TrEMBL record:
Organism, scientific name: Sphaerotilus natans subsp. natans DSM 6575
Alphabetical UniProt keywords: Cell membrane, Membrane, Protein transport, Translocation, Transmembrane, Transmembrane helix, Transport
Main location (coarse class): membrane
Function: Involved in protein export. Participates in an early event of protein translocation.
Gene Ontology CC, one term: plasma membrane
Family of the protein in this entry: Belongs to the SecG family.
TM region positions: 54-76
GO biological process terms, semicolon-separated: intracellular protein transmembrane transport; protein secretion; protein transport by the Sec complex
Membrane topology type: Multi-pass membrane protein
GO MF entries: protein-transporting ATPase activity
Subcellular location: Cell membrane
InterPro entries given in the database record: SecG
Name of this protein: Protein-export membrane protein SecG
Any Pfam family the entry gives: SecG
Amino acid sequence: MQVMMNIVLLLQMAAAVAMIGLVLVQQGKGADMGASFGGGASGSLFGATGSANFLSRSTAIAATVFFLCTLALAYFGNLRPQDSGSSILDRASAPVAASAPASAAPAAAQIPGLVAPAASVPASR
């Protein structure tokens, strides 16, 4: 199970880095206006509109892989062992209660600097 989570986490990090790189490489919508007046980007590798389609599709695929990995990590992270019926708070507090010293002193006397309250005496009239 731990190996599966590590593989999904590695895939999620690769998708995140790919998505960041793809978004940074893409041009904005206003960049086409400069290219129409001879901006010099017309001789690109993918053609005039091919780069926009390729980069936007690649970004969408990377985003889909990222979100699927996020859902898988959330699912694997919330799996609980089937044999224990107690909550995590019960399991965390059980060793603390067993290791506490048993003493006859009241709880207020164990706190330093705290004065124990006086016994209540009925007021006489």
